[in-house]
Recover the amino acids of this structure.
């Protein structure tokens, strides 16, 4: 092997083979550039540190977007998913979110195989401890590892996850580690500080894993997977391909009064409550200690028991993340219904780690301080595989764009959840680990998981990485347009009225069929059946999922336009002054987190309010409405005062 092959210069070095690193290294190497991926342990490529699941509320949307953009996460989960479930089915279809449990061993093996078989990509196990920066030009030129190796590149993407000075806590037992069983990276954050980066600290936690054979299935409620699982990847969807893995159930159970008693009795032995952990964790993903303290009135908490794979007996106990000592964790587990004799295989723990506040980044994830250096994933203060994968992919894209001297690729908030994620990070920063929620997106009716291909496939196509899917997407949407036109032309007939009568839908004969789809609460089986009645159109080539998707498109057309108008109004209102004496407690509908932060910061105008992390567009709408109402009331009062002074008020009434 030549020195160039060994040390570089490479077009790009990716540090870290987690979810961000996998996407970043894959996309840059597929674009034809030489990439070196350095990671602490090559057996842990795409390791699922916590929950063995991909997707979920809003996160499922991100995975579909990653897939549409040419990333790997959707494909990997579709090859290794063992329990698919579409969440939020009882809500509007814009809120439907796909989620799947993975066989976590197959997941990481599958990811590693893809990388190993990428022609321009070299994988090496090594620990990066320092950066090489050309200080005159403020440009990255390479990295140094703990073993003294130097590697050179004009672009470096850091995706170090929870590993920078990672400190694990189990009760009062504390030790260094990037996650349990893995060494931490102790020196790299010092190097970042040396180059002028701000480094701060966050924490997160994970629950214990138990042995499946020690659960009492008779006392547990089985949760079956979806009968027709919807794949994450558009390649699977376009081919109507069946998912390869066997689908298995998860189980549901509950904590008891005894669980509560045990936690309360041992609270001070928790690393979190005993004062050992100072950093901030994700409030929306609370530990069992937090749940018992914060929701003291709640008699029980739901627990999901999720298998970690097909060939292992380990089960993830979703809902009891904890930093309590091991003896207490055993007591807690054994106090849960159906787990009276359960054996813990790995304890739960909390972890504190260094991250770099993401306001130090351009919106294309390159650092403002050092040209060519990008950060992606948990190093930016996010939490979650999906958020990490999305950033890795976007950093990768921007390395490609930079090499090709193209403008940076920055997705708009109206284009993708990934656009919202990165915009929030670089403009608002983070005060606690950031995860995606649908409420963070102002255009959520348009940003649906089902239309991610329509929104985003042009980007991989622009850089020659569309895997042949772009043309298929285009003909798909041309065909959808033809169906929509045919639906508009079809008039509601007597036969259609009979069908609608079965669901108690009362509508006038002769109206366009599209009017039915716009009605609230049309059951999906009726929506699907209506496609058989479209005049002069054979829709039999459409799958059930496509029929649902088209009915959603028609249903939300009007809402999407209204949402766009609302957003425009919000943008115009950024200068609007918020009255100093505004009483946030008296405003209905604000999220608790937003209310707390608004009370604390007391922003002077709406623009400042919108930049507060945790204050979402929906909260801004509520504050705007409130200010406008108050202004109108004040105007009315002063008008009345003027009128009463002039003696006219009686006549007015
Ligand atoms: P990671 O997946 O952490 O990967 C980082 C990679 O970088 C690793 O492969 C590591 O070996 C490598 N690396 C690090 N430093 C160096 C270095 N100096 N040199 C070379 N290689 C290096 N997410 C949720 O959504 N919900 C949760 O409840 C949740 N709980 C969690 C609990 C725990 C205990 C942990 C550890 C994580 C949890 N996560 C949770 C977070 C989730 O695991 C991460 O968000 C996600 O894995 C981040 O992806 P990443 O690619 O940024 O980093």
């Amino acid at each position: 092997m030549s020195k160039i092959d060994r040390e570089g210069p490479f077009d790009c070095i990716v540090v870290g083979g987690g979810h961000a690193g996998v996407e970043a290294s894959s996309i840059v190497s597929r674009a034809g550039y030489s990439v070196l991926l350095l990671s602490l342990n090559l057996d842990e490529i795409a390791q699922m540190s916590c929950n063995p699941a991909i997707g979920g509320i809003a996160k499922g949307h991100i995975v579909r977007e990653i897939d549409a953009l040419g990333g790997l996460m959707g494909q990997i989960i579709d090859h290794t998913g063992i329990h698919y479930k579409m969440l939020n089915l009882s809500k509007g279809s814009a809120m439907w979110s796909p989620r799947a449990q993975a066989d976590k061993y197959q997941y990481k093996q599958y990811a590693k195989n893809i990388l190993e078989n990428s022609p321009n990509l070299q994988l090496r196990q090594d620990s990066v401890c320092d950066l090489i920066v050309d200080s005159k030009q403020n440009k990255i030129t390479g990295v140094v590892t703990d073993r003294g190796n130097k590697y050179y590149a004009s672009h470096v993407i850091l995706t170090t996850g929870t590993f920078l000075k990672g400190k694990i806590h189990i009760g009062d037992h504390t030790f260094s580690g990037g996650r349990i069983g893995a060494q931490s990276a102790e020196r790299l954050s010092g190097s970042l500080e040396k180059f002028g980066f701000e480094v701060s600290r966050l924490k997160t936690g994970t629950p214990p894993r138990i042995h499946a054979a020690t659960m009492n299935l008779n006392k547990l409620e089985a949760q079956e997977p979806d009968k027709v699982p919807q794949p994450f990847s558009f390649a699977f969807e376009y081919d109507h391909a069946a998912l390869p893995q066997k689908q298995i159930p998860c189980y549901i159970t509950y904590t008891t009064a005894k669980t509560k008693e045990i936690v309360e009795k041992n609270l001070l032995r928790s690393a979190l409550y005993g004062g050992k952990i100072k950093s901030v964790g994700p409030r929306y993903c609370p530990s069992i200690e937090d749940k018992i303290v914060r929701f003291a009135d709640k008699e029980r908490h739901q627990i999901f028991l999720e298998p970690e794979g097909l060939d292992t007996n380990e089960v993830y106990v979703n809902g009891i993340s904890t930093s309590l000592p091991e003896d207490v964790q055993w007591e807690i587990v054994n106090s849960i219904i159906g787990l009276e004799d359960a054996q813990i295989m790995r304890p739960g723990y909390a972890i504190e780690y260094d991250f770099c506040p993401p306001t130090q980044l351009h919106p294309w994830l390159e650092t403002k301080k050092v040209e060519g250096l990008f950060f992606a994933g948990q190093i930016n203060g996010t939490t979650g595989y999906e958020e990490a994968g999305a950033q890795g992919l976007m950093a990768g894209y921007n390395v490609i764009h930079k090499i090709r001297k193209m403008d940076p690729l920055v997705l708009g908030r109206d284009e993708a959840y990934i656009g919202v994620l990165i915009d929030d990070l670089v403009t608002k920063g983070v005060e606690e680990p950031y995860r995606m929620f649908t409420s963070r997106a102002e255009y959520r009716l348009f940003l649906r998981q089902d239309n991610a291909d329509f929104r985003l496939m042009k980007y991989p196509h622009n850089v020659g990485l569309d895997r042949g899917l772009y043309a298929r997407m285009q003909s798909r949407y041309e065909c959808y347009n033809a169906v929509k036109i045919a639906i508009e032309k079809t008039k509601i007939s007597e036969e259609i009225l009979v069908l609608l009568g079965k669901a108690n839908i009362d509508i006038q004969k002769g109206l366009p069929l599209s009017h039915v789809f716009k009605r609230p609460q049309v059951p999906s089986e009726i929506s699907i059946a209506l496609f058989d009645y479209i005049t002069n159109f054979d829709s039999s080539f459409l799958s059930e999922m496509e029929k649902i998707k088209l009915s959603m498109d028609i249903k939300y057309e009007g809402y999407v336009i209204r949402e766009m108008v609302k957003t425009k109004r919000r943008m115009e209102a950024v200068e609007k002054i918020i009255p100093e004496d505004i009483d946030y407690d008296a405003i209905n509908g604000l999220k608790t987190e937003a209310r707390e932060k608004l009370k604390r910061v007391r922003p002077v105008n709406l623009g400042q309010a919108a930049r507060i992390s945790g204050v979402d567009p929906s909260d801004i709408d509520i504050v705007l409405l409130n200010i406008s109402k108050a202004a109108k009331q004040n105007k009315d009062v002063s008008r009345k005062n003027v009128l009463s002074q002039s003696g006219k008020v009686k006549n007015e009434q």
